[in-house]
Design a protein that fits this description.
By secondary structure, the chain is mostly beta strands. A hairpin with a 2-residue loop joins β53 and β54 (593-601). The chain is 6% helix and 45% strand. The protein has seven domains: 10-56, no CATH class; 65-157, Sandwich (Immunoglobulin-like); 166-254, Immunoglobulins (Immunoglobulin-like, Sandwich); 260-351, Immunoglobulin-like (Sandwich), CATH 2.60.40.10; 354-450, Immunoglobulins (Immunoglobulin-like, Sandwich), CATH 2.60.40.10; 455-548, Immunoglobulin-like, CATH 2.60.40.10; 556-746, Immunoglobulin-like, CATH 2.60.40.10.
């Protein structure tokens, strides 16, 4: 403010604020933010003035905090001699607070105290006690109200605590983007024109911890997933006065799922979950870290490549699901938006084992109620197919688990019968085998028709011995093969006698194509012995021979002699004519008691038998008894011989029982010597002849024994004896008077076993 006419124009320059001269059409000019300066220098020149007039205004201000006592003073240009000097407080309004005259002070509030003495002093001083924000403002004095805005006053500045700030900014930010949060507050410092000049400082906090590097009112963050767990607050500060914490805010980072997780984690092998068809998998819980939360769907993929929702629809949790072979995978889909989704795929290895399919010559077998018919000598292709995962093991069996073909690591098995036979008839089974599964099977049959013929795979008896008589029958059982089974009406026998009533029956063996033809052939008299031929449906099948069989004759030429070391040599000639199954029983006699020594097989009629017995006690006499036996009975008569063992002599007796011997010692020695020499020579000759004749006439002799009896005048062959154990059938207790209860002879009733023996001790 300066003196002059308000209607005039003035040139004004303010040093330090504006170096340019500007025009003012008034006698005053308001300087903004003058409180920021200690003094303001103005150069003012009226239009007609030749030079500038300089006006200097000193800016007087004090700054105190609330609660302090403020002492304010200034120098007045004069003190009125009359009237009062009024002190004004100008803030939002202008009011007088103290009135002073030369002898009195009037205050509007007890917090004001006027200190100047004398009262009319131009050095104005007063105190404001316990100041508040309302006490801030401009203090000046004068004699009229206009003086409240005159220069020379003092500005009281009272800083206040900033208002509790608010945080502004977008909180939903995609991960990777920049988040800007702004802390906004206002100062409460007074006066208002001072408050407008205040620049607040700010402090940021994360989860209650001060962020040292963040000072401005704006907080910038590169958003990550971790920010969702952070609370951010701020404070405003005016000088040393700090506001309260703002309300916390939380950044909501937005992000799509990186990975989908399943709980529990499926136990996979080679990337797949192995499960049997019909088993249940689940439940599984699906989760994914995404914000906002993802939508979840469970789906499955079938073998045709179609993706379908599970039924009933599932969200994050998959309810237990029954697995079928057409399901290749289950998948949990985490849907963030239409374009962003992630999946967890459970690849399935569904295992199964189907019932085998059977094929005969390429034609599928529909059932096993009837067998597949075919003739002999046909090519038969048998196939088994097993649909399975993993690839199965396949077996083709026949009958009771007899494996005829096997295939591993393949779902097909092929077996070819190059030429069908009767034995191929039967029940076949295709079997599928796979680990952890029960075996599956399909049964079918083959029915190969074949003509009836002898079954050479079964032992066949073609030689039968029998007595004769009106009620004597020989039972003949012959194994045959035939499909369909042979008919009894087509069985015929042809033998030595015509029109013989031979009855025959048919019985099945263990398989359908094997049978027994059981016939009963009567042997009424000697005419009925001979060859019998079985004829079936006009075709000869086999011939059997029935020969004579009766009580055997006793042995011939039974002799014995003793030789060194206590051994006895016994020899005799076989006189058998009673049929097969013949043998000898050798005993020693002591008084009336017989003790069996050996059961010796018959080498054949007319053969020489040689038997060694020992070692025996020296200087003793031994009586030997010999019988001929067969399955009918033993010979009615027995033959005996006695042998005396001396230390230096040998005695031989024939079967004529001499009660006394009147030979002299010399003749006895000569006889013994000649006998020994003769026996040794006979043994040597017999061994040589045996080797020759056995090799040459073995087959011929067997036929002669079966058909024709030996000729009495033939020289006997010498045979090393053979021992046959038949003691379970014959013993000394029933030899003499044995007679069969029935004259019928079962061809399969008797059996024998033989072994070659060198010396019996």
């Amino acid at each position: 403010m300066w003196n002059g006419k308000s209607s005039d124009s003035y040139s004004v320059a303010i040093h330090g604020l504006s170096e340019k001269v500007f025009q003012v059409n008034d006698t005053q000019h308001t300087v903004k933010n003058a409180i920021n300066y200690k003094s303001i220098m103005l150069d003012v020149k009226a239009k007609d003035d030749k030079s500038y007039s300089r006006i200097i205004y000193n800016v007087s201000k004090i700054e105190l905090k609330e609660g302090d006592n403020a002492t304010i003073f200034w120098s007045a240009p004069y003190f009125p001699t009359t009237g009062a000097y009024t002190i004004y407080h100008t803030n939002k309004a202008n009011r007088s607070i103290i009135q002073v005259n030369s002898n009195n002070v009037t205050t509007q509030n007890r917090k004001y105290e006027y200190l100047s003495q004398p009262l009319n002093s131009t050095n104005i001083t007063f105190v404001i006690r316990n100041i508040t924000l309302d006490d801030a403002g401009y203090y000046a004095g004068g004699i009229k109200a206009e003086d409240a805005w005159s220069g020379g006053g003092v500005v009281l500045i009272v800083p206040g605590i900033p208002l509790t700030p608010n945080i502004n900014g977008s909180l939903n930010i995609p991960v990777g983007n920049l988040s800007q949060l702004t802390c906004l507050s206002k100062t409460t410092s007074a006066p208002d024109y001072y408050a407008k000049l205040v620049n607040l400082s700010y402090t940021w906090f994360v989860n209650g911890t001060k962020m040292d590097k963040e000072k401005g009112h704006t907080l910038e963050l590169n958003v990550t997933k971790d920010h969702k767990d952070n609370n951010y607050t701020c404070k405003a500060m005016d000088q040393q006065l700090e506001s309260y914490h703002s309300n916390p805010v939380q950044i909501n980072p937005l992000y799509k799922p990186d990975i989908v997780l399943i709980n529990p984690v499926p136990k996979v092998e080679n990337g797949k979950l192995t499960v049997k068809e019909g088993e249940i998998i689940g439940p599984y819980n699906c989760s994914a870290d995404c914000n906002p939360p993802c939508e979840f769907k469970w789906r499955y993929n079938d073998s045709a490549g179609n993706i379908q929702d599970v039924s009933p629809p599932s969200k994050a949790a998959l309810n237990p699901q029954i697995v079928t072979r057409n399901i290749t995978e289950f998948r949990c889909v985490a849907i963030y938006n239409e374009n962003d989704r992630e999946r967890y795929i459970i690849d399935l290895n569904v295992q199964y084992l189907d019932k085998p399919l059977a094929y005969i010559n390429g034609e599928q077998v529909q059932g096993h109620d009837s067998a597949f018919p075919m003739s002999e000598a046909e090519i038969v292709n048998l196939s088994c197919y097993v649909n399975s995962n993993p690839v199965p093991q396949i077996k083709l069996t026949k009958g009771v688990a007899v494996t005829i073909s096997e295939e591993k690591n393949n779902d097909w098995l092929n077996h070819t019968i190059e030429s069908s036979q009767c034995s191929d008839t039967g029940t076949y089974k295709c079997m599928g085998l796979s680990t952890s599964f029960n075996n599956t099977e399909n049964t079918f049959g083959l029915n190969v028709t074949c003509n009836t013929r002898i079954d050479n795979s079964t032992p066949i008896k073609t030689l039968y011995g029998s007595m004769s008589g009106n009620d004597v029958n020989v039972h003949v059982s012959l194994p045959v093969m035939g499909n369909p089974p042979p008919q009894e009406s087509m069985i015929m026998w042809f033998g030595p006698v015509k029109n013989v009533n031979i009855t025959s029956t048919v019985s099945q063996q263990d398989v359908p194509y094997k049978h027994w033809i059981n016939s009963s052939i009567p042997i009424i008299n000697q005419d009925y012995y001979g060859n019998y031929t079985l004829n079936y449906n006009g075709t000869d099948i086999i011939s059997v021979i029935i020969i004579t069989e009766d009580v055997p004759r006793p042995p011939m030429n039974f002799t014995g002699y003793a030789y060194g070391n206590g051994y006895v040599n016994l020899t005799w000639v076989s006189g058998f004519n009673g049929g097969p199954e013949e043998y000898f029983l050798l005993y020693t006699r002591l008084g009336s008691n017989l003790t069996q020594v050996r059961n010796i097989s018959d080498p054949g009629e007319g053969k020489l038998v040689n038997f060694n017995h020992g070692p025996l006690n020296m200087d003793g006499e031994y009586c030997y008894v010999l019988k001929s036996c067969n399955r009918i009975n033993c010979s009615a008569q027995t033959v005996e011989t006695k042998v005396t063992i001396h230390s230096q002599t040998t005695t031989a007796l024939n079967e004529t029982h001499s009660s006394s011997i009147s030979l002299t010692n010399n003749m006895l020695i000569v006889i013994i010597g000649v006998s020994v020499a003769t026996a040794i020579l006979a043994v040597v000759i017999a061994v040589c002849l045996t080797k020759y004749f056995l090799k040459r006439k073995k087959t011929q002799r067997r036929r002669e024994i079966a058909q024709v009896g030996p000729t009495e005048g033939n020289e006997p062959d010498i045979v090393i004896y053979t021992v046959v154990d038949k003691t379970k059938k014959f013993n000394a207790g029933f030899i003499s008077d044995y007679s069969p209860a029935s004259k019928e002879v079962d061809a399969g009733q008797f059996a024998s076993s033989s072994s070659i023996v060198v010396r019996v001790q």
